[in-house]
């Protein structure tokens, strides 16, 4: 229903009161077989759409409350009629500033990390190539939130600033930038509920860079591999049980049943007790609610964050962990195999656009007989 409403609203905004019905059809790009490689089709993500016209694209970041529209306009072409509240992004984008290091993986996937000229924070970066650019002074720090250096951004005048936000995020915080005609694009891939949906946000970046052909080729391969691996795991007779995360002072935050991590567990052929528990965000449970299931769970994953974490370090946080079956057997794993000296974790950079590799890791953990030759990439076993 939301998608239908969006399409109706979009049609009305394009046509206008006095526009002939045929205008949209005339402006739309042709969809001959040769043209599909230069367009992206969104199959998994729910948070954005892209429409193609003769000299521009319309990117929409969708939410029930509001939809943010962006006109991706080919350089040197006039602004199209309609879309009075839409920001203009001149394409192909030549320089970009990312507020989160999570966006680095999106650009690297498209072999376009050289497009980055600024980051919100330079400390938490894993990518060796981006770190090299930072050391060479090609990528600068611009700050975030209350510490945003607007003067520096205006001086840099990047082609786009990509910020983290929910679909309903307002751009008031970046009003000075928009007044300076620096477009601010809200990236909401983190709200998606499946690994492929999260990864598909790379198609939005591809639309900014006019790299649709490349993203179609690369995403198509990872999508096929992900589905192949999930099918292998689905055929396994045994479904080992698991728990995820750690207890904190306030609560034990577990992935909700409709989260991307829960989908990973399911596709890897594991039995996750809370798979049917839907929620916005994580499930905050107390230790006593998790304890009965943790006692008998075959595996304990996503436990520990530092690359140097050990079973002893985990036990020092709560002696009751020693009661867990997975603690006794040593079947404890976390996604901290690729953490550099600065504490930056590549699981949150390249891992986002490599869900097939993350899935292969989890299948190797839960069903080592299915992928005997695979070596863990993002995950490691705690010793």
Domains (count): 2
- Specify the CATH class of the largest domain: Alpha Beta
Distance between the termini: 50 Å
Mean pLDDT comes to 88
**CATH superfamily label of the largest domain:** Nitrogenase molybdenum iron protein domain
Strand arrangement across the biggest beta sheet:
7-6-5-8-9
The portion of residues forming beta strands comes to 15-25%
Shape: globular
User: What is the CATH topology of the largest domain?
Assistant: Rossmann fold
> What is the gyration radius calculated from CA atoms?
23 Å
CATH architectural category of the largest domain: 3-Layer(aba) Sandwich
Biggest beta-sheet profile: 5 strands, parallel
Assembly state: single chain
Question: In terms of structural class, how would the helical and strand content be classed?
Answer: alpha/beta
Walkthrough of the structure:
The structure is a single chain. The longest helix has 23 residues, at 212-234. The protein has a five-stranded parallel beta sheet with strand order 7-6-5-8-9, with no helix packed on it. The protein has a five-stranded mixed beta sheet with strand order 12-10-14-15-16, with helices on both faces. A four-stranded mixed beta sheet has the order 1-2-3-4, covered by helices on one side. It folds into two domains: 2-220, 3-Layer(aba) Sandwich (Rossmann fold), CATH 3.40.50; 235-381, Nitrogenase molybdenum iron protein domain (Rossmann fold, 3-Layer(aba) Sandwich), CATH 3.40.50.1980. By secondary structure, it is α/β, with parallel strands linked by helices. Strand 2 and strand 3 (67-74) form a beta hairpin. The termini are far apart. The protein is 33% helix and 16% strand. The model is unreliable at 1-26 and 30-34 (pLDDT under 50). The radius of gyration is 23 Å and the shape is globular. It has helices at residues 2-15, 23-27, 33-36, 104-109, 128-135, 150-156, 175-179, 195-199, 202-209, 212-234, 260-267, 287-296, 311-315, 325-329, 355-366, and strands spanning 48-52, 56-62, 67-74, 87-91, 96-98, 116-119, 140-141, 160-164, 184-187, 241-244, 252-254, 271-272, 283-285, 299-301, 332-334, 380-381.
């Amino acid at each position: 229903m939301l998608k239908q409403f969006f399409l109706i609203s979009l049609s009305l905004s394009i046509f206008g009161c006095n526009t002939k019905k045929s205008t949209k059809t005339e402006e739309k790009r042709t969809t001959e077989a040769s043209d599909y490689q230069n367009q992206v089709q969104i199959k998994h993500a729910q948070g954005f759409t892209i429409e193609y016209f003769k000299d521009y694209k319309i990117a929409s970041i969708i939410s029930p409350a509001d939809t943010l529209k962006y006109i991706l306009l080919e350089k040197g072409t006039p602004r199209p009629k309609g879309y009075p509240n839409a920001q203009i992004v001149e394409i192909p984008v030549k320089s970009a500033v990312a507020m989160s290091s999570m966006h680095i993986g999106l650009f690297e996937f498209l072999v376009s990390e050289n497009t980055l000229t600024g980051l919100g924070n330079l400390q938490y970066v894993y990518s060796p190539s981006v770190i090299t650019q930072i050391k060479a002074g090609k990528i600068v720090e611009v700050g975030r939130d209350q510490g945003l250096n607007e003067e520096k951004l205006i001086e840099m005048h990047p082609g786009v600033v990509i910020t983290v936000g929910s679909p309903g995020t307002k751009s008031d915080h970046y009003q000075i930038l928009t007044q300076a005609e620096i477009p601010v694009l809200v990236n909401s891939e983190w709200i998606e509920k499946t690994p492929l949906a999260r990864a598909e946000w790379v198609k939005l970046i591809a639309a900014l860079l006019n790299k649709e052909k490349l993203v179609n080729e690369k995403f198509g391969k990872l999508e096929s591999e992900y589905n192949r691996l999930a099918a292998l795991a689905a055929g396994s007779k045994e479904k080992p049980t698991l728990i995820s995360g750690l207890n904190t002072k306030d609560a034990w935050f577990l992935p909700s049943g409709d989260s991307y991590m829960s989908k990973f567990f399911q596709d890897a052929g594991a039995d996750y007790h809370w798979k049917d528990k839907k929620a916005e965000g994580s499930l905050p449970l107390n230790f006593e609610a998790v304890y009965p299931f943790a006692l008998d769970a075959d595996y304990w994953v996503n436990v520990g964050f530092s690359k140097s974490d050990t079973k002893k370090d985990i036990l020092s946080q709560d002696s009751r962990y020693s009661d867990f079956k997975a603690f006794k057997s040593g079947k404890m794993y976390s996604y901290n195999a690729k953490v550099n000296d600065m504490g930056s974790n590549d699981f949150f950079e390249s891992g986002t656009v490599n869900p097939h590799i993350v899935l292969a890791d989890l299948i190797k953990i839960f069903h080592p007989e299915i992928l005997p030759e695979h070596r863990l990439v993002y995950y490691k076993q705690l010793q």
